[in-house]
Design a protein that fits this description.
Number of strands of chain B: 0
Number of helices of chain A: 12
Number of strands of chain A: 30
Helix content of chain A: 25-40%
Strand content of chain A: 25-35%
Helix content of chain B: over 70%
Oligomer: heterodimer
Structural class of chain B: mainly alpha
Shape of chain A: elongated
Mean pLDDT of chain B: 80
Number of helices of chain B: 13
């Protein structure tokens, strides 16, 4: 097989390159990164632009400095909790239940349901009842749980009226009375009857039950005569939760930071000004007047006796329940919440950014822009530079003067500021980035190639070609060009590295192609968000990727230098 | 050609380059921003101010008149008033240029002071592990983007260890009479340490590798053979005979680097909030401060060309072999 001469000439240098250990490492690493760019959609674990959310059985505990995140109770959200005589119970989504005695560890309950459970209550005798979606009612029977047959209703609240009777409320204004000994359910007629969702129920000190629901609805149920009457609490917002202490202090919380408080059984309800207007999902009030309210995004407010204050919390999870046992205060959640600034985990290998986007996927996708700009820019640069150098060096005279003066002018233009101006005047896009990279960088290539061509054109083989009648183009591209090829490849390799850094720089300054994911862009986001000072997983990987890519290219270029300059070869 | 003739020719060339750059800049701006005052209505230029700006840049007149006006203003150093600072552009630009140059020159000097001897030493230990490690680290710092190394340095030395300040040139507030008064203080050195180090680490690679490679070439020359034959100690051969003769390419590289120094390193200035010219251009771009962007760039280019010219002239003085072509 006969190879074209320039290919045969290329085989020798390749052999020299393979002898350089660093160059081989460089080629392997670059190969890996190219593969990463090509297979980015396969390699990335998430959609890099997707805002990731997870559900979690989150527990926050009040510490000296604020609410601190505790170990999670399972992967499903926790909805309600109850405590009496040392026994604590928690229920959550997907039929999840937890119990503990005293301050011991939580153990999972084996509940015979998969439905989402919304409320739990403990009777004075310590018997538990759990209610949830789809008419699920579970009564504790020693260690077992007895399902109570019930109509389809999404039950939200439950309270024991005494040792034998419990009152249940649901989202279609259902008010159900359960006789725990017989398992009979009877419906209590609501005074409204417009299918308003009822959210929560609590036992008042006079033995009646107070139910709250949508649009400020409050219904008082009197077990003595079985009547349900409408009550005004002074708010028309949706109410989510009610808690009444044993002494008669009461707290109702609702949407838009609604906080309704009653200091004692005899006093009136008053609406407290809230420091935040997000939805509150759970409230707790003690006999001494201390009160807590919890809501979405980790919002917990504490009553200091005269005003509500936002307590420092460690997490942005959505809280749904409060459990206070003696000095211990727990806040429970969490529905699907955005996993902002999560450190590296098995789910997110490089963690997440401030919008909950997966950083590993972003880094993997970032290689595409880097290599695209790197190779496209470098090819363009070398194409322009080599041709200018060839023509200037070969023709000399006026052509050379004009071309080399142009190169001189180019040397007067600083790169980064020029790119900034280009982006100011024309909208940022991939084309502008590649143009900005290549418009200035060809100056070096042109100078180097020209000086090489200047010496080559005086060589005997060029004279021989000219005598043989070869045209200028033929001499330039078939006779001189193959001899500057090693130098061209050397410059190509160096400029790939330069281009990758240039693209990263522009993206870092926020001037890269919009909507594109790039390594520089990730660092731009990190700097802009201000979180980079703590979220090391955010700013470490992109830089390492840039460095590794450019370094591997430089390793290759170093061995090309040995090819281009035989004098280096002899001494090593 | 005589030395005098060479000088005149080089100066004329520099002026020519500057004129071309000014022309490119003018047409780029007119192409991208036909009416610069329109882009800044947010900044609250009232009708009167807009008219003043339009008159100053001759925006009502034909293009060639605008061009002549632009060149006349540039020659007279009249760059107009910055939209965002409401102050003459030239004042702002000169101060920022000084800040950039002090940062860049300190870093370049540091990089070459370390890189050149280190490169010579590596060539002497060629093929050893030290040599490979030296090349590796030199190339590594050259490959790492400066904004990233800067961020990491701030994380470690600024935030983590609280050893160095993370932004600015001086602790605020301070008062200084003029530029020199500002920089000849310990406080300035303390602020400059991190940014200078980051830029120096980046520049370190090229003197190191060029020195090493040139030394390898020089080792093959006859006069080294001769020195060895005379029985001179290796150390003397390395530093007295070989290193001196290997300096030329390093000096060439130094000249190019200093020549481009005025262009600064925008990202380092951004990361360390260094009030330099590059950061000023970025701000001007962001706020569409057209007079400031245009003047900053032009003055920066003028400075780069002047530095190139000075370096070239110095170079011919240092090395008589370089002919006055």
């Amino acid at each position: 097989m006969t190879l074209p001469p320039f290919l045969r000439a290329a085989m020798g240098p390749l052999r020299i390159m393979m002898q350089d250990r660093l160059a081989v490492i460089g080629m392997c690493v670059l190969g890996l990164i190219i593969a990463m760019a090509l297979f980015a959609p396969l390699l990335s674990t998430h959609d890099p632009r997707h805002i990731n959310e997870i559900e979690d059985g989150s527990v926050l505990s009040r510490g000296a400095a604020g609410w601190e995140l505790q170990e999670s109770l399972g992967p499903l959200a926790l909805n309600d909790a109850a405590h009496r005589d040392g026994i604590s119970l928690i229920v959550g989504r997907g039929g999840m239940g937890w119990s503990r005695e005293g301050a011991g560890a939580w153990s999972a309950l084996d509940l015979p349901t998969e439905a989402d459970l919304h409320a739990v209550a403990l009777s004075p005798e310590g018997r538990a009842i759990v209610v949830g979606d789809g008419g699920v009612i579970l009564l504790q029977d020693g260690a077992d749980w007895q399902p109570v047959p019930a109509p389809e209703a999404n039950l939200r609240g439950v309270v024991w009226l005494d040792g034998a009777r419990a009152l249940l409320v649901g989202t279609n204004e259902e008010i159900l009375l359960l006789d725990a000994s017989s398992g009979d359910l009877s419906t209590v007629d609501s005074p409204v009857g417009r299918d308003f969702p009822l959210q929560s129920v609590a036992l008042d000190v006079d033995g009646t039950a107070l139910i709250v629901g949508e649009r400020g609805l409050a219904i008082r149920y009197d077990p003595e005569d079985g009547s349900a009457t409408l009550e005004r609490l002074g708010s028309s917002r949706d109410l989510n939760h009610i808690h009444i202490s044993e002494g008669g202090a009461a707290l109702v919380v609702g949407e838009r930071g609604t906080l309704l408080r009653r200091e004692s059984a005899d006093s009136d309800w008053s609406a407290d000004p809230a420091p935040d207007t997000r939805a509150m999902r759970a409230g707790w009030i003690g006999d001494d007047g201390a009160a807590l309210a919890a809501g979405r995004n980790g919002l917990i407010m504490e009553w200091d006796g005269s005003a509500w204050n936002i307590a420092p919390t460690q997490s942005e999870r959505h809280l749904r329940a409060l459990l206070v046992v003696g000095d211990e205060m727990l806040a429970l959640g969490s529905d699907r919440f955005v996993t902002r600034l999560a450190p590296p985990s098995r789910e997110h290998w490089f963690g997440t950014d401030h919008l909950g986007r997966d950083l590993f996927s972003q880094n993997v996708h970032g290689s595409q822009i880097a290599l695209l700009v790197g190779f496209l820019g470098a090819t363009l640069v070398v194409l322009i530079g080599t041709n200018v150098g060839l023509i200037a060096g070969y023709y000399r005279g006026r052509t050379e003067t004009v071309l080399m003066r142009t190169v001189d002018v180019m040397y007067g233009i600083p790169f980064e500021p020029f790119a900034l101006i280009l982006v100011l005047l024309f909208q940022p896009s991939l084309t502008i980035v590649i143009l900005a990279v290549s418009l200035l960088t060809w100056r070096t290539v042109a100078r180097l190639i020209r000086s090489q061509v200047l010496s080559l054109r005086e060589r005997p083989f060029v004279k021989a070609a000219r005598v043989a009648g070869a045209s200028d183009l033929r001499i330039m591209y078939l006779h001189i060009f193959p001899n500057v090829l090693p130098l061209v490849f050397l410059e190509l390799a160096i400029i790939v590295g330069v281009s990758i850094i240039a693209e990263a720089t522009l993206s870092f300054l926020g001037l890269g192609p919009p909507q594109a994911i790039s390594w520089g862009g990730i660092l731009h986001d990190a700097r802009l968000s201000g979180a980079w000072r703590t979220a090391w997983w955010w700013n470490l990987p992109p830089g390492i990727f840039i460095m590794t890519t450019v370094l591997s290219v430089f390793f290759i270029s170093r061995s090309l230098e040995v090819v281009a300059n035989p004098r280096l070869r002899a001494r090593q | 050609m005589t030395r005098r003739g060479y000088l005149i020719k080089r100066v004329l060339q520099a002026i020519f380059s500057l004129w071309i750059i000014a022309t490119i800049l003018f047409f780029l701006f007119r192409m991208g921003l036909p009416d610069p005052t329109a882009a800044l209505v947010t900044e609250g230029l009232n009708a009167e101010q807009r008219a003043a700006v339009r008159a100053q840049f001759g925006l009502e007149e034909p293009l060639w008149r605008q061009y002549v006006l632009f060149l006349t203003n540039a020659v007279q150093g009249e760059f107009g008033t910055s939209f965002s600072y409401r102050a003459p552009v030239s004042e702002i630009v000169w101060e920022r240029l000084g800040n950039t140059m002090i940062l860049m020159l300190a870093a370049i000097v540091l990089a070459y002071a370390i890189g050149v001897p280190l490169g010579a030493w590596l060539s002497w230990r060629r093929g050893s592990r030290t040599d490979t490690a030296g090349i590796f680290f030199g190339l590594m710092f050259r490959s790492a983007p400066m904004f990233w190394t800067g961020m990491i340095a701030i994380l470690i030395f600024g935030v983590g260890l609280s050893l160095f300040p993370t932004s600015g040139m001086r602790t605020l507030p301070y008062d200084a009479d003029g530029f020199l008064d500002k920089i000849f203080t310990l406080d300035f050195l303390w602020h400059a340490a991190l940014p200078v180090l980051i830029v120096a680490l980046y520049y370190l690679g090229s003197p190191l590798l060029i020195m090493r490679n040139t030394m390898l070439e020089v080792y093959g020359e006859d006069f080294i053979e001769m020195a060895r034959a005379k029985g001179l100690p290796e150390r003397d051969i390395l530093y007295k005979h070989a290193a001196r003769n290997a300096l030329l390419p390093v000096v060439t590289q130094l000249a190019v680097t200093i020549g481009l120094a005025a262009g600064g390193q925008v990202v380092v200035e951004v990361v360390f909030s260094w009030p330099g010219l590059g950061r000023e251009i970025l701000n001007a771009v962001r706020t569409s401060d057209f007079p400031l962007a245009q003047a900053s760039f032009l003055i920066m280019a003028a400075f780069v060309i002047t530095l190139n010219l000075l370096v070239d002239i110095l170079y011919t003085t240092l090395d008589p072999r370089v002919s006055f072509r």
